[in-house]
Amino acid sequence: MAPEPLILAIETATMAGSIALVRADEVVGGFKGDPGISHSNTLLADLDKLLSETNIELAQVDLFAVAAGPGSFTGLRIGIATVKALAETLDRPCAAIPTLHAVALSGGPSESTVALLSAGRGEVFAQLFSVSGDDVVTALDDAAHIAPAKMIEKYGSLENVLWCGEGANAQRELIENAAESKKWRIASLIEERADGLAHYVSRLALQSFRQNQLVAPDALQAIYVRPSDAELKVS
After folding, report:
1. DSSP states of 37-89 as a string?
2. Confidence band for 232, pLDDT divided at 50, 70 and 90
3. 70 preceded by cis ω (within 30°)?
4. Residue 130: which domain range?
5. Does residue 207 lie in a domain region?
């Protein structure tokens, strides 16, 4: 069996973003960004800082993983472009991880997990999953860009739902008011981890490695779910 890879995971789908260096179950290092500063201004500096603090050289990275979306359009483009450039230069494989899959994993095992990310203009990206104790994340529907009220209508008949992600925290009052006796729970914020969502991106990337489902850098594509504002204006 091939040795477990050293994975550099980059997540720029959320406002703060995060990066992590992980080998198997060992977190080598990682941290979150500043939600008030654009990833374009900080990502490369953050990578340099992480590599310096962990005494790791970029050439030692075996696999580059990126949160492919949905999420911030600008953030996704920056993260994917950075991973493409680094992986292409070093001739390394990549793992493109759907952001909502990583959000669902962050909530822990659950038969019904709704992963939520804020989508701007008061709306959310939402998707229903089941998550096993051995990190298998199974999508039970498609990712949707949806108004919070429509989201409650869509999932309101379900019981024992675990709501997770920064979108769940933003919509906490709405979710709690709709819960009644449904035994809904809202997971602790993923921001409590020092390495943020990137840690969960790396765990899913490790699964892709073990299942031989990696891709070449030029095959990386963003998962937008909805058209960009520029595209909406053109249409």
Report:
1. S-HHHHHHHHHHHHHHHHT--GGG--EEEEEEESS-HHHHHHHHHHHHHHHHH
2. very low
3. yes
4. 100-189
5. yes
